[in-house]
UniProtKB/TrEMBL annotation:
Pfam families, sorted: UPF0203
Protein name per its UniProtKB record: Uncharacterized protein
GO CC field: cytosol; mitochondrial intermembrane space; nucleus
Superkingdom to which the source organism belongs: Eukaryota
A GO biological process held by the record: phospholipid translocation
UniProt source species: Verticillium alfalfae (strain VaMs.102 / ATCC MYA-4576 / FGSC 10136)
Family membership noted in the UniProt record: Belongs to the TRIAP1/MDM35 family.
Signal peptide span: none
An annotated Gene Ontology molecular function: phosphatidic acid transfer activity
Keywords: Disulfide bond
InterPro entries (alphabetical): MDM35_apoptosis
């Protein structure tokens, strides 16, 4: 398995990857279950670790600046409007 973006998150990423790959091969591919709730807590732990690491490194600000710089292009080419309250594009509501 690959290493995490943040070395301090490698352990929790490895646990999540192991859980996910087991679920994927033993359940999803066999049609046993489409929902992967058994790995959700591990995913949340990994996501939390990454969020802290991204903020500590200032990556969140770089992403935000890049999105702001490209807001007009996104709106023109994607036909969508940037919504400042989230990190997502919201469809225009007529």
């Amino acid at each position: 398995m690959s290493a995490s973006l943040a070395p301090e998150c490698n352990e929790v990423k490895e646990r999540y990857d192991t859980c996910f790959l087991k679920w994927y091969s033993e359940k999803y591919l066999r049609g046993v279950g489409a929902d992967n709730n058994e790995c959700a807590d591990l995913f949340k732990s990994y996501q939390k670790c990454l969020t802290v690491a991204i903020k500590e490194r200032g990556i969140d600000k770089l992403v935000e600046e890049s999105r702001e710089d490209n807001r007009e292009n996104d709106a023109a080419y994607l036909g969508r409007k940037w919504h400042p309250s989230c990190w997502c594009l919201q469809d225009l509501v007529s």
